[in-house]
Amino acid sequence: MYKSKSACSPHKRRVFCLLLGVFLLVFGPLLACLPPKQPEARPSPLPSTLLPTVAPSPAKVTATLLPSPAPTIQPCAPAKLQTDSIQTDLLDKPMDYHVILPPCYAESPHQRYPSLYLLHGQNFDEDQWLRLGVAETAQRLMQAGEIVPFIIILPFDHSFKQPRDYNFEEVFLSLLLPRIDAEYRTLARPQARAIGGLSRGGAWAIYLASRHPDLFGIVGAHSPVVFYSNTSALPIRLRDIPVEQKPVFYIDAGNNDVDFRDVQQFTELLNGLDVPHEWHYNQGFHNEAYWSRHVEEYLSWYSSQFTP
């Protein structure tokens, strides 16, 4: 029978066992003194709550230099109403008057302005034009740049007499007008000085401008009632005004005005004498409701004449 080469005989096994016993007897105590081998330590995973947080790299910030804010423009003063009076023995009552200064008047100390004199109707006073809204309308249009800035003067005429029967003309020309030009920054020339009025005030505007074209180059007659004492002399005065001094007229009236026919006759006179004018035929009566509706038109026309 075949035997494996790795098999040991009984004799050899006894010898091996004897040698192993001797080895253990001699070296066994030494081996027992060696420290036991520790298992290799493996790092335990950290709890997720203790994991270090890695902050993302901050995004690159590009500094943008914003433009400096524009300087704040201080709004200028609105239109201003001033009131004064001329005390004189030439009239039965003082000539009270209002002055409406345009917006920015105080902030523009070197600027000079055209002037507009507006006269009220009979049985009224210098407040009538204010009641019609002239101050508010002028301020709105001037601030919007729709009309040029100008000074408005509203004088009081206390009488119902004809011009030659009392001294309104003298006080107006010798006291009021020079005072306005001295105290306010006006442009003292006829092309920059207008006179207008409604009803009786319109008659005064026609009368004064026709007699003093060297003072008033712009005339507004709104529903005028021409002075009956002036009817014969008026055509001659208008005819004799030098061409270079002829004022420009604005005439208007409502179709139901009680004096509508007289107003038409005046416009026909201007046509016949080649006096420059505008004639506005509107719907309405001879009353404040009519005039108040057209205040803006009046101011716009005066402004257009002031503008070269």
- State the name of the first-level CATH class: Alpha Beta
Helix content: 25-40%
Numbering strands along the chain, what is their spatial order in the largest sheet?
Answer: 1-2-4-3-5-6-7-8
Average pLDDT, all residues: 84
Q: Beta-strand percentage?
A: 15-25%
Structure description:
With 308 residues, this protein is of the alpha/beta class. It has a single domain (80-306), classed as Alpha/Beta hydrolase fold, catalytic domain (Rossmann fold, 3-Layer(aba) Sandwich), CATH 3.40.50. The protein has helices at 10-33, 128-131, 134-143, 168-183, 200-211, 234-240, 260-272, 288-293, 295-306, and strands spanning 80-86, 95-101, 115-119, 151-155, 193-198, 218-222, 248-254, 277-282. An 8-stranded mixed β-sheet has the order 1-2-4-3-5-6-7-8, with helices on both faces. Mean pLDDT is 84; it is low at 1-8, 30-34 and 36-69.
Key terms for this structure?
alpha/beta; Rossmann fold; eight-stranded mixed β-sheet; 9 helices; 8 strands; globular; disordered N terminus
In short:
The chain has about 300 residues and is of the alpha/beta class. The chain has helices at about 10-35, 130, 135-145, 170-185, 200-210, 235-240, 260-270, 290-295, 295-305, and strands at about 80-85, 95-100, 115-120, 150-155, 195-200, 220, 250-255, 275-280. The chain has one domain (about 80-305): Alpha/Beta hydrolase fold, catalytic domain (Rossmann fold, 3-Layer(aba) Sandwich).
